[in-house]
């Protein structure tokens, strides 16, 4: 069984600081759990960044084509908190797993942490998701497309909040992954994420950008 954890960030944005913060942390975690790690500092899917993170969908599609059995995608504003838990345990057979976020703007499956079993059913979902570009101008971009598709079928399943325990939204005491999605502008998000990371892992130091992998 081959598993991969993927993260991707747009160059020349403040989100790069987030991936620089956690890259070495996630690489070590993946080595411990026999998971391949892919950190991508590239746009991948050329588009207007304001139209959403279609790069993540392209990378997931590529991972499927490359034969990975289990695919985990974490946005750069999330990191693994429980180093003993294996994120592959969240993956359900023939499904895409995501956590349900209950916020005033819209209750939705949050695509900041996705847990994907590589099969025909999920491949069809990912291919269709990627094909809906540009997304409708509803303010939710690829997130809105994902939710509409999820509600039309049975490919997406709701996971325990511990797989994407998000600051001020869905925090739980047994969190495996901590998310900071939607926490204001990038500067604020970087600040609160960095504070949380160093509180949990004070021994960590910010690493420079290591080898940049780009399969796009």
Q: Can you tell me the residue ranges where pLDDT is under 50 for at least 5 consecutive residues? A: 206-216
How far the N terminus sits from the C terminus, by CA atoms, comes to 24 Å
Number of helices: 5
* Helix and strand element order: EHEHEEEEHHEEEH
Percent of residues in β-strands: 15-25%
- Number of separate structural domains: 1
Radius of gyration: 16 Å
Strand order of the biggest β-sheet: 2-1-3-6-5-7
Structure in words:
With 216 residues, the chain is an alpha/beta fold. The protein has a single domain, classed as Spore Coat Polysaccharide Biosynthesis Protein SpsA, Chain A, CATH 3.90.550.10. It is 31% helix and 21% strand. The protein is built from 5 helices and 9 strands, in the order E-H-E-H-E-E-E-E-H-H-E-E-E-H. The strands form 2 sheets. A 6-stranded mixed sheet has the order 2-1-3-6-5-7, sandwiched between helices. The two termini are 24 Å apart.
Short description:
By secondary structure, this protein is of the alpha/beta class. Helices cover 31% and strands 21% of the residues. Strand 1, helix 1 (16-32) and strand 2 form a beta-alpha-beta unit.
